[in-house]
Amino acid sequence: MAVPTFVDRVALHIAAGRGGNGVASVHREKFKPLGGPDGGNGGPGGSVILRVDPDVTTLLDYHHSPKRRAEHGGHGAGGRRNGTHGDDLVLPVPDGTVVKQPDGAVIADLVGAGTELVIAQGGRGGLGNAALASATRKAPGFALLGEPGDEIEVVLELKVVADIGLVGFPSAGKSSLIAAISRARPKIADYPFTTLVPNLGVVTAGDTTFTVADVPGLIEGAAEGRGLGHDFLRHIERCAALVHVLDTATLEPGRNPVDDLEVIEAELARYGGLDDRPRLVALNKVDVPDGRDISGMVVDELRGRGLQVFEISAASGEGTRELTYAMAEIVLAARAEKAAEVVERIVLRPKGVDGDEFTVRKTGAGWRVRGVKPERWVRQTDFSNDEAVGFLADRLNRLGVETKLLELGAEEGDAVLIGHPDDSVVFDFKPGIDAGAENLSRRGQDERFQEDRPAARRRRDIQESMPERGETETRADVARRLDQPEKYGPLAYEIGSDDDPDASDVPARREEDPGE
Fold first, then answer.
1. The dihedral formed by the CA atoms of 156, 159, 161 and 164, expressed in degrees to the nearest 10
2. What are the residue boundaries of the OBG-type G domain, all occurrences included (predicted)?
């Protein structure tokens, strides 16, 4: 099987890196039993970037390797250590690459060295429990998962960026003309379809330098797929002008330059989008006696149609200088009309749901919730952790999802689906508040640090009793008397004094504080 050397259209599967997971960790150190949360965040996944590289002229690499994936982000760790960032994957593409969806919709047109397109955004890293801690949730026992990166199917099409496009029948001499006016050395032979790929040549005329593209030969029906023209007509879309290379010495019966011109123009019209391009006509092969005679018979007719006509010979070089200067005039005029373009880094981001932050609608499967935030929060939730699920419910409630569901008539036990129909998570609706009832606590809240817990009350009682202690009494003594008042009695006396009836029963004073 022949190995292609020029590829101008490929289908590519691209996947960005997944974000790393956050971690739930508690700081542990001697004499610090409540060191607090110290779980680090996960690192973001790498993005996939298409970048125009002037040194790349074909999409051949992606023809052989059509699946590309960026690096995943690293997971977080204890000690507030965040995960590593996944490296971006930069894919070099030729100048003039058009990025399309599989259905043909254009995503971006990459023209100009250095132009970039973030075609797939890396997933965000999940937050660790240190980042999730707050005044009311001081020690979260959960962390958020990393988000998956974007995954997309795209089609890359190359449209050669050239100032002048040469069009004509096979063997009309287009490749020979490029070889005569530039340093390009395309394959040349005396049989049809010698040119199988577009050839580019750099031409200098006076102070003007421009590029000329030789498009594989067109025949009648090329716009419908006959011959090679159907695959390569797009390569002349960017040209500022078209040059008809007409064969004046063809050996095929029934052909003449005027008819060839009309056939090619008809194919260009069927393809569409090229009516506004200036045309030049090059009557080639006038070095052949019959060719010069035929050229003399049609030149006046072509000029009568308002066309600039040049009688040339790509073999001997006759007339090529005048043709290149005419090309240069058109290129300069086109460049003057075209405003200077600033090369920008194009960023493609997923489109959110139109309208508000979320939408709710009733379907046959249940109440479907769509929105950027709700869907992202669901992806970040570890459903094996009850506290994490409670945190998700709390976020959805604050966003107003539950209120919206109640307004639309949702009842407890109804199915609630969050996400795309092909990948949604189903919940049983259980509102956090009943109509007219008070919500006493937030779901997923850590109750260990509430001010009314026993340990907190005990420390508060000890602190309030400190002013009543004796002169030699320590905080530990106050704690013991509060814990066992029947043994140590009230606090309004000095331990070990003559007023103490059970001074001998008081244990020796210790420096450590059991209440701490």
1. 180
2. 162-332
